[in-house]
Design a protein that fits this description.
The chain is mostly beta strands. The chain has a single domain, classed as Porin. A 14-stranded antiparallel β-barrel has the order 1-2-3-4-5-6-7-8-9-10-11-14-15-16. It has a two-stranded antiparallel sheet with strand order 12-13. Strand 8 and strand 9 form a beta hairpin. The protein is globular.
């Protein structure tokens, strides 16, 4: 239903880079809490959104790791008795393989479960699986991955027929030799099985571009700064980096984000994120926007 940042990983690329800097024989445990608050502008249906949850992970540089995320969402609507509560579960595992020619291969498998109190149930009872294969070269300047996601939605009281969604996400990452700057380009190619439940869309395509800068001197404890832009259209997307399913039936037509990662205390990370998204419900002619603020705090041992 919304995008909740996965601050313990941020995607396979950060898993791999972080693991290469820690001891190969020890497990790194991380626990954290996260929250989000936002409001909708120019929407005829939605007013506010809030979320809270936790993150747990275990990582070993020579092997891989596992992660568990839970979020509880609350969405306020203008209509009476339409307010929605939602549970989001995310379970992920990844395994590293060293390439003979240098670099690291990573196999990753994500699982998602979403259930909510929606009366029409067109966005409820969601299961999704998302495998991903990635490669990071030895100098850590080039990153490639191919991700696939398959989502299954429950029966709808409003629209007939089942809804399954197939998604392909190729990704290219490019960085400097000192790894202070990083560019990531990810395509979203999505095909719903039932256009009647997907804003009459048989296919959607979008491009997401992110730029990250890491600070060597860490001014005021700022570890990194990231800006992101989404262009194009996508519906029912699965976001590998955010560890989230966009089970909202409306069409996303754009978005921008700005986030900072802070380390004020040893082994304690704070992430702040500002985001602004654009959506359209073509069935009722509702074009609206959503602005939100995210805060995540994690501690590693």
């Amino acid at each position: 239903m919304f995008k909740s940042k996965m601050f313990i990983a941020g995607g396979t690329i950060l898993w791999t880079l972080t693991a290469q800097g820690q001891s190969t024989d020890t497990w790194k445990l991380t626990a954290g809490a996260q929250a989000l608050a936002g409001d909708y502008q120019q929407s005829v249906e939605r007013k506010y959104i809030a979320s809270a949850g936790f993150v747990l992970s275990a990582e070993r540089a020579s092997a891989g790791g596992v992660s568990l995320i839970y979020n509880r969402n609350w969405i306020d609507f203008y209509a009476a008795n339409a307010d929605l509560e939602e549970n989001n579960w995310f379970l992920s595992g990844h395994k590293y393989f060293l390439a003979d020619t240098g670099g690291t291969w990573t196999m990753r498998l994500d699982g998602y479960r979403v259930d909510n109190s929606e009366q029409a149930e067109s966005e409820n009872d969601v299961w999704a699986a998302a495998p991903q294969m990635s490669f990071l070269n030895g100098s850590r300047t080039v990153y490639l991955d191919v991700g696939v996601a398959y989502s299954v939605y429950g029966d709808s009281a409003t629209f007939p027929d089942d809804l399954n969604v197939v998604q392909l996400t190729p990704t290219l990452g490019l960085g400097t030799s000192a790894f202070t700057d990083w560019f990531q380009f990810r395509g979203y190619f999505i095909r719903p099985s039932n256009a009647d439940r997907a804003q009459s869309q048989e296919n959607t395509a979008a491009l997401e571009v992110k730029y990250t800068h890491w600070y060597v001197d860490r001014p005021l404890g700022l570890y990194s700064l990231q800006a992101g832009v989404l262009a194009g259209e996508r519906v029912y997307a699965v976001d590998h980096d955010a560890a989230a399913v966009y089970n909202l039936a409306d069409l996303q037509t754009g978005g921008v984000t700005l986030s900072g990662q802070w380390e004020w205390f040893r082994d304690t990370i704070v992430i702040t994120l500002l985001g602004h998204d654009q959506f359209e419900n073509q069935l009722i002619g509702d074009k609206y926007r959503r602005s939100f603020f995210y805060l995540g705090i994690s501690r590693s041992w």
